[in-house]
Amino acid sequence: MTALTADRATPERAGDEFSYPVAASVICRAGGIAALNASGNVLPAVTNTTLICVGRFEETVDNSAGSAGAVSARVKRGVFRYANSAAGDAITAAEIGDVCYLVDDQTVAKTNGTSTRSAAGVVVAVDSAGVWVRMGL
Q1: Where are any strands of DSSP class E within the chain?
Q2: How far, CA to CA in Å, does 16 sit from each of 78, 85, 98, 115, 136?
Q3: Which of 5, 19, 72, 98 has the fewest CB atoms nearer than 10 Å to its CB?
Q4: How high is the mean pLDDT of the chain?
């Protein structure tokens, strides 16, 4: 492609909600942490080093008996509160601004678990109910 020499009508989307094909044999629960696998299919977050956190599931989608991509799920990016990990992996106010890591589809941790966890997003706040995390591409 060459540089523009005239005005261009560039399509736009809000960019905070997307639909992704769902991985095979999973149930995505509304409110859970959504992550993309290496094939570009979305699944509930798990401890794994190859996932890309894309946000929060906006709906429950059952693909437990389906193949990858048989159905799609809506996912929203933004700042969401999830459960804090425990013991040495508990996130504190000292970690605000740091990257936190996926434990499961409702829990985040301070460390990558000795290189076993993918990034969840950036810690925005910590309160007694959990950790507020900015998630999504």
Answers
A1: 17-21, 26-28, 33-36, 42-44, 52-57, 61-63, 72-76, 78-84, 99-104, 107-109, 119-127, 130-135
A2: 7, 26, 22, 29, 8
A3: 5
A4: 96
Domain-wise residue ranges, the chain: 19-76, 78-135
Q: Report pLDDT digits (tens) over 84-130.
A: 999 999 999 999 999 999 999 999 999 999 999 999 999 999 999 99
Q: What is the pLDDT of residue 86?
A: 94
Q: Where are the alpha helices (DSSP H) in 1-137?
A: none
Tokens of 63: 């693909």
The pTM score is 0.91
Q: Strand, coil or helix: what is 110? A: coil
